[in-house]
Amino acid sequence: MARIVMKFGGTSVANLDRIRHVAQRVKREVDIGNEVAVVVSAMSGTTNQLVDWVRGISVLHDAREYDVVVASGEQVTAGLTALALQELGLSARSWLGWQVPVMTDGVHGKARIEEIQTADLIARFAQGQIPVLAGFQGLGPDNRITTLGRGGSDTSAVALAAALNADRCDIFTDVDGVYTTDPRIVAKARKLHRITYEEMLEMASQGAKVLQTRSVELAMKHRVRLQVLSSFEDLPGTLVVDEDEIMEQELVSGIAYSRDEAKITLRQVADRPGVAAGIFGPLAEASVNVDMIVQNISADGKTTDMTFTVARTDLDRAVKILEEARSTLDYVALTADPTVAKISVIGVGMRSHAGVARKMFEVLGQKRINIQVISTSEIKVSVLIAEEYTELALRALHSAYGLDAS
Ligand code: ADP
Ligand code: ASP
Ligand code: MG
Questions:
Q1: CB-ligand 1 contact for 148 (6 Å cutoff)
Q2: What is the pLDDT of the chain when averaged over all its residues?
Q3: CB 108 within 8 A of CB 64
Q4: Is the pLDDT of residue 300 over 80?
Q5: Which of 144, 180, 223, 328 would you call most buried, defined as having the most Cβ atoms within 10 angstroms of its Cβ?
Q6: Is the CB of 11 within 6 Å of ligand 1?
Q7: What confidence category does residue 167 fall into, taking pLDDT thresholds of 50, 70 and 90?
Q8: Could you tell me where in the chain the CATH 3.40.1160.10 domains are found?
Q9: Is any atom of ligand 1 closer than 6 Å to the C-beta of 46?
Q10: Mean pLDDT along residues 376-384
Q11: Closest ligand 2 atom to the C-alpha of 148?
């Protein structure tokens, strides 16, 4: 007997037929004697609608009320899934985040799970009951509902698997695994049978939305056996594993893209000690994260240009903060460009091989795609380009690194 957590994403619970299908899939695991906990997302499209409603009524909304509204999608699917299981003759009940409780910190809209109390759930397992947890939500220290950031039910599932000491956490979605790049953009993308935690973490944090970044962080930390697979087809999925479980390391195992960033350039900033702190300090204070940064050498020894990226959703706020600080920062002009995309090539094999970045630059050069900013880490190279070239760049790089499916 194994204990498993099965998570179903938005398209997997998009209508009643699919929810019935989910119930059948869960029953299969129960029938072979496994203890199963289920985690569900809201029906696809629901959370976007809820977010739009909140923004429609209040642009600078109270994040606590945002959470009350956007958490509601998962309440519906948790209840419906429990009912569908009951219709199959199984014992099941829904659990909202606050009922478990799934305790989080108080950062509304982007809360982190701190603890999941599982005693009650485990007692119900013993009685043969299937808990169906509403993903994406928890309870903050202020005793109010929190949500975990978009895509957060993946994190609910992994955290629950860790807390329950589960043998597996299966993430059922609308693709049959993790691919070398988004299969919806590059038709020749190849399914990876295995990927390391580290690579998956980079892929997710550089934009591959198949798993929420925090879910991978948690899986890595607690060594949760994580699998991504299709909820529509019975196919082997992708297993996220330790590095030593992969025999032959590819140089590049995946390419991610993100259209969620925006570029800001400050022209002719006074080139003196403390200027970077002067720019990035106020942004950090306002919880605006800065990702890529380039600072030019000043031609005249007096001023320099500073270019960096922030989340596109933070752009307006970042510009406002920098405009307010203009007199102290002493720059001549500020330009903001939301039409950029970040492309990242990722692979643990890069650690021991040179030339990955050079190839990336050559391929983009041949396609006449201008690189605006570059950043690297041990297992990744990222470039910022104009958004309109995203697909062209992805396809060209995918071929150049030999990733195309034959
Ligand atoms: P769910 O609603 O099940 O959580 P998501 O839409 O959040 O599903 O994530 C699945 C989507 O992730 C896929 O439909 C696919 O377009 C996208 N995706 C991006 N990069 C990848 C990748 N490297 N491999 C697989 N899917 C990817
Ligand atoms: N329903 C939430 C969202 O759309 C959480 C999730 O799907 O994982 O972001
Ligand atoms: Mg998702």
A1: no
A2: 94
A3: yes
A4: no
A5: 180
A6: yes
A7: very high
A8: 3-174
A9: no
A10: 94
A11: 5
Instruction: Check residue 141 and give its pLDDT.
Output: 98
Q: Which residue lies with its CA nearest to atom 5 of ligand 1? A: 210
For the domain covering 258-338, report its CATH number: 3.30.70.260
Range of lowest pLDDT (3-12, 310-319, 347-356): 347-356
Q: Are 201 and 154 in contact (CB under 8 A)?
A: no
Tokens, residue 28: 């299969």
Give, using CA atoms, the residue closest to atom 9 of ligand 2: 150
**Residue 79 burial (CB < 10 Å; 0-12/13-18/19+)?**
middle
The pLDDT assigned to 135 comes to: 98
- Fold classification of 3-174 (topology level): Carbamate kinase (3.40.1160)
Ligand 1 centre to CA of 176 (Å) is 9
Q: Whose CA is nearest to atom 21 of ligand 1?
A: 182
The protein residue whose alpha carbon is closest to atom 4 in ligand 1 is 9
Grouping H, G, I as helix, E, B as strand and the rest as coil, residue 135 is coil
Residue ranges of the chain that CATH labels 3.30.2130.10: 341-400
Among the ranges given (58-62, 181-185, 233-237, 353-357), the one the predictor scored with the smallest mean pLDDT: 58-62
Candidates 3.30.2130.10, 3.30.70.1400, 3.40.47.10, 3.40.50.10860; correct CATH number of 341-400?
Answer: 3.30.2130.10
pLDDT at position 252, please? Answer: 93
Burial class (CB in 10 A: 0-12, 13-18, 19+), 378: exposed
Binned at pLDDT 50, 70 and 90, residue 340 comes out as very high
What is the distance between the alpha carbons of residues 390 and 366, in angstroms, rounded to a whole number? 15
CATH 3.30.70.260 in the chain, residue ranges: 258-338
Q: Are 188 and 26 in contact (CB under 8 A)?
A: no
Q: Is the pLDDT of residue 155 over 90?
A: yes
Nearest ligand atom owner, CA of 257: 1
208 alpha carbon, distance to own chain's centre = 7
Of 70, 136, 228, the residue with max ligand 2 atoms within 8 A of its CB, to mutate for a pocket test, comes to 136
Give the CA diameter of the chain: 78
Q: Which of 136, 172, 173 to mutate to test the pocket of ligand 1 (most atoms within 8 A of CB)?
A: 173
